[in-house]
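Work Package 4 report. The design task specified in the project plan requires that, given a folded chain encoded as structure tokens, an amino acid be chosen for each position. We show below one input record used in the internal validation round.
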């Protein structure tokens, strides 16, 4: 029983570290057509932007990033060692605006796009 406390402590540290590492790899960002959201793309790596629906169209401001679309994912990679541009992604009845920035390391790995309209509920009152 004298090893139960250190083992429990070690297990808690591992669980917290795993949750922190996962939260650093995967983040949630809102879909916003009025304000661009920053997306950091690390040189030599792919950033995955996951949408709630399959994007209809992707319109970049400049061709300094490469885009590949697979189902609901938009895969972004930097074509140059430094660069910045905006991109507009059109969904069914919505558009999302992003500001893509090339960084040397610690880019965004996976971004989950949430539509703020999804969190709104319509309440109907009956007389």
């Amino acid at each position: 029983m004298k090893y139960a406390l250190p083992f429990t402590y070690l297990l808690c540290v591992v669980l917290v570290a795993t949750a922190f590492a996962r939260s650093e790899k995967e983040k949630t960002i809102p879909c916003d057509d009025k304000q661009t959201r920053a997306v950091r793309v690390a040189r030599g790596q792919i950033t995955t932007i996951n949408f709630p629906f399959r994007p209809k169209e992707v319109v970049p401001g400049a061709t300094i990033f490469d885009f590949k679309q697979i189902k609901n994912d938009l895969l972004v990679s930097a074509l140059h060692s430094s660069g910045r541009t905006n991109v507009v992604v059109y969904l069914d009845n919505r558009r999302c605006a992003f500001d893509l920035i090339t960084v040397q390391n610690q880019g965004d790995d996976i971004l989950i796009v949430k539509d703020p309209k999804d969190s709104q509920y319509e309440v109907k009152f009956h007389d």
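Residues 7-23 have pLDDT under 50 and may be disordered. Validation will be extended to a larger panel in the next phase.
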